[in-house]
Amino acid sequence: MDNLSYKALIVEEPEKNKFTREIKSALVNDLPDNDVLIRVNYSSLNYKDALSATGNRGVTRQYPHTPGIDAAGIVEDSQFAGVKKGDKVIVTSYDLGMNTSGGFGQYIRVPGEWVVKLPKGLDFKQSMIFGTAGFTAGMSVYKLIKTILPEHGKILVTGATGGVGSLAVGILSHLGYSVTGVSGKTGTTLLNDLGAKHVISRDAFLQNTKPPVLKAQWAGVIDTVGGDILATAIKSTKPDGVVTCCGNVASPDLPINVFPFILRGVSLLGIDSQNCPMDFRSKVWEKLSSEWKFDMLDQIYDEIFLNQLDNKIEQILKGELKGRTLINLD
Question: In 3D, which of 10, 9, 8, 29 has the Cα closest to residue 77?
């Protein structure tokens, strides 16, 4: 593999706080000195990738850099026990695409502890339709359904047309839950196709939300955005309901008091998909590849190539993308 050249989207900082991104040739020898070298077949576009691609220091500290927090491909070389050349694998989250060269390049080299064997029920493309977004949705579902059953009532999913939200809607509907989605986007037929029973606009959801508690409506909530939307969801959750929280696109702040927790016994569960332990990670991927794999999975994505990424990065930053965007690197 010495001096092997490959294509990658490389973000550079030619002047302080001025960033450029361009598809360039890179060398495998310049990848980090880790255990497992993987030839990437597919990646996917996430909001965190767009932040890294535009110079967000909270995501990526040093440039030049190749984003891409998701990757699926074939092992080319391994010095890690349990992972061998020829294995089909996926890598999501950890530090991939943040400060470690990521899936927007045709090769990655990562620690063996990050590598998950591709589950039998998924191909490379399907694994990246899920990707970090689907894995995060899966973690949220996993924690929610331990307590909340379909007969307990409606489930609310916020940010429902985004990656995590749309996949959560698909999984929950497939499992027999009555799902209501909240979205700031127009044209939400995607959510109905995924099985959502109702769709509420963001503006309508945030009307008359000042009281400390609101009419109890939701047996459970999967929140993907944070801020006022999460606060409103918590205030309108039924007694002993469960709310999961995995995002802060709307705001990292939570403008709420303790009343929903001490008067209704609402539980708020945080979701950390980046550093999830491998045993739990494997359980969630097994569920995604089997009983949680819903029929619409292959119809909620756009497939692009590296040279089409630039426009998609701008779209996701503006909140204009729906469903999932896959990058074919093969």
Answer: 29
CATH classification code of 132-270: 3.40.50.720
- Token reading at 135: 């894995």
Where along the chain do its domains lie? 5-118+300-328, 132-270
Lookup: tokens for 211: 């009281």
**E strand or H helix that includes residue 273:** none
Per-residue pLDDT of the chain (330 residues; tens, 9 = 90+): 567 999 999 999 999 999 999 999 999 999 999 999 999 999 999 999 999 999 999 999 999 999 999 999 999 999 999 999 999 999 998 999 999 999 999 999 999 999 999 999 999 999 999 999 999 999 999 999 999 999 999 999 999 988 899 999 999 999 999 999 999 876 668 899 999 999 999 999 999 899 999 999 999 999 999 999 999 999 999 999 999 999 988 899 999 999 999 999 999 999 999 999 999 999 999 999 999 999 999 888 999 999 999 999 999 998 888 889 999 998
Options 1.10.10.10, 3.90.180.10, 3.40.109.10, 3.40.50.2000; CATH for 5-118+300-328 is 3.90.180.10
Number of CB atoms found within 10 A of residue 39's CB: 19
